[in-house]
Amino acid sequence: MFEEVVNRLEENRIQPMASKDTVEFLSLFCEDFMPLNALEIGTLYGYSALFLSKHSKELTCIELDHFNSIQAKNNFLNAGVSNIKLLEGDALKILKKLENKYDLIFIDLAKKYYLDVLKLCLPLLSPRGVIFVDNTISHKDKLKDFFFFVEKSDLFYFELEIGKGLMIISKV
Ligand SMILES: C[S@@+](CC[C@H](N)C(=O)[O-])C[C@H]1O[C@@H](n2cnc3c(N)ncnc32)[C@H](O)[C@@H]1O
């Protein structure tokens, strides 16, 4: 079930989906790290969420678009995954209402929101929490304010040359 859904998504890959290298890396990371609560911001059809959910106890996903949310929910159902909760709506509004702390947060929505979303995510991090940010190489030119903030901050950050560029951020 899980493999069939993932294979179908990969065969019909659409450009905004995270790269295979990225989701495989995240899954491997989660296998060791074992997040209790994970959060994904920007879910599309649920491809990266399926990999994040494999070794997370609970995964919360936020997706703005109604059509994408329906596709994602169907994919979670067909993959036999039951530890994902999908919140449909604008992440900038939803993040302000979340009360949980998250061990892992994956940011992968429209690039113009990265900085605001990062700022909203920082208070949601658990003490051991890490944030992964996708497309930091492929979309570097669109992320100038994001890079400026991160570089001036006292956050730990490191850019991994995986997929389209994956940045890991944590509080030191
Ligand atoms: C790059 S795609 C996500 C890809 C997905 N993580 C994957 O690898 O399969 C970005 C998604 O973010 C969603 N999005 C854009 N702006 C958003 C917002 N303000 N709040 C929530 N989701 C948003 C888009 O609808 C789109 O589905």
How would you characterize the overall build of this protein?
The chain is an alpha/beta fold and 172 residues long. It has one domain (2-171): Vaccinia Virus protein VP39 (Rossmann fold, 3-Layer(aba) Sandwich). 38% of the residues lie in helices and 26% in strands. It is built from seven helices and seven strands, in the order H-H-E-H-E-H-E-H-E-H-E-H-E-E. It has helices at residues 2-11, 20-33, 47-53, 66-78, 91-94, 114-121, 144-152, and strands at residues 37-41, 58-63, 84-88, 102-107, 125-134, 155-160, 166-171. It has a seven-stranded mixed sheet with strand order 3-2-1-4-5-7-6, with helices on both faces. Helix 2 (20-33) packs parallel to helix 3. The N and C termini lie far apart (40 Å). The site of S-adenosylmethionine (SAM) has 20 residues, from helix 3, strand 2 and helix 5.
Secondary structure: elements and pairs:
Elements: H1 2-11, H2 20-33, E1 37-41, H3 47-53, E2 58-63, H4 66-78, E3 84-88, H5 91-94, E4 102-107, H6 114-121, E5 125-134, H7 144-152, E6 155-160, E7 166-171
Parallel strand pairs: 1-2, 1-4, 2-3, 4-5
Antiparallel strand pairs: 5-7, 6-7
Bound molecules: S-adenosylmethionine (SAM).
